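Work Package 3 (structural annotation) set out to generate three-dimensional models for the target panel prioritized at the project kickoff. During this period the team completed the workflow that converts sequence records into discrete structure tokens, so that structures can be stored uniformly alongside our sequence database. As a representative example, we reproduce one entry of 125 residues exactly as it appears in the project archive.
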Amino acid sequence: MENKKAIKLVDKILTDLDKTGINADTLIKDLKELREYALEAQVPLVVKVLRFTYEHIEENDSFLIPIPDDEPIEEDTDETTAATEKAAVKDPVESLKYLVSLTKSLKNKTNISDLKEYRDALIAF
């Protein structure tokens, strides 16, 4: 997002996540505020992803969505898939930090693609 206040808020969220991890009350308030900036900027993908994110945190008291893979990996069995997903969810703070940082630069096609993957994963969860 181009808004300097939004970028400042993203930085605050990332700093808070580093310091205290997922503190649901503060984090949800900040995500809702960031969503308002996305509404003003008319970025529907970010608006949706942020809403799904704070609703997910409210329901689960954590962020259980893994960081999207860089490349699709061919899986042999469901066991391998489950193990991979479990490993990826080990650090919900890192995944959430990555999601929030994606909102800083929406001109980057990879960021948009990853935000869409997060959106789809949050819907599927």
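The two ends are 26 Å apart (CA to CA).
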